[in-house]
Hints:
Helix 2 links the parallel strand 2 (47-50) and strand 3. It contains six helices and five strands, in the order βαβαβαααβαβ. It has a single domain (2-8, 23-81, 103-177), classed as Rossmann fold. The protein is α/β, with parallel strands linked by helices.
Amino acid sequence: MTLWAVRHAQPLVATGICYGALDLAADAPATQAAAEKLAAMLPTGCHVRSSTLQRCEQLAQVLSALRPDLMPNLDPRLREMDFGSWEGQRWDAIGQSALDAWTADFAQHRPGGGESVQGFMQRVAAAWDEKGDGPTLWITHAGVIRACSLLHAGLRQITQASQWPQAAPGYGECIFFK
């Protein structure tokens, strides 16, 4: 198994906004730059799967225009975590008590009534289990890539917020799993 997981380019949203599952466009020049970098590095025969959110679909479309052999398949399991009513709000406006409640029951709590971390992990794990043996590119989000790092380490379930990886690739950057 060889998996490249690339994060979409910078979304068109103000800094500090919770935008997990919001369907936002990404910066076009940054998307073009990320696609050019990917087109130069990916092998022939690479399978491409993309989140269905437009910031990822944009990158998939530009990449396939540069490399017609890299036609994407859309996969909703590669979407970012859904934060329910928190979506579109400033993180600092959500309130410390709401964030503390999520941290206290990190695996099962549904932030903003959205998706639990455990549900999110199960969704990403289902895609992970189907990635196959050949070279594959996922065009996705920081949360999915963090989940991939846990899955790559053999962790399918976490119970504490401290187990969640803090590091994530920058916009348009790629992580390699082998």
